[in-house]
Amino acid sequence: MTTDPLAPLLALADIAAAVEQARERFDQALGHRALRRHGGQVAAEVSLRCAVASAALEGAGHEREAVRAGTVTDPVLQGALRVAGALPGLSELWPKAPRQALAKLHVLAARDLVPEAELGRPVADPVVATRLDGLAGLIAGGTKVSPLVLAAVVHGELLNLRPFAGPSGVVARGAARLVLLATGLDPRGLLAVDVGHREREPEYVGAAGAFATGTPDGLRSWLRHYMAAVEVGADQLTTIGDEILAAA
User: Fold this and answer.
1) Fido domain: from which residue to which, for each copy (predicted)?
2) Cβ distance 224 to 12 under 8 Å?
């Protein structure tokens, strides 16, 4: 019997409970009545807000309404928008060929930011290659833990590795959301988890650094942050639903 490599994470203090609480908060948000008639509009707004948040975390902060109006040409923001828009179309490829999907995310995120020859190509580092292979194995069915835990690990590992030139954070955040879509936890892309990372940015940065240490305390710090960001993302779904109903 093969041991699940991520199962020990659930034995870290408070993590199993935090994962359960985050999942329950999202499940509650999914009951919002705006989703019955305006689901597509809600998903589009979540996508926009996640892209704006992801770009801001990459150092390219812009007002959401200016982005909505189409007046922002910043290449980091445009890359984040392309990544967010592409996620539903990549959900089937993701578990079958995760490295190919990551390459596609990088092409979308880094166009106009890195030389064309570097688009979709990981940095030439054997350590990075080995760890990407390990990550791909997890994504392709190598773990049975909650998709929230897998998404957190994918996100943290890609932030740590920075396997691509340019806006690696945009790729990492897109990949984590892709985990949630592809596993069926969030098939419509309704969980605005990147908004949670943005709202808790100091904690996000610190916890990502802690994750990179690989220590139990570092992993716990990152997982606790990630689940808190999921709860913020779930609350954001409720806020968006309320706004759309009020405008209807």
Assistant:
1) 97-225
2) no
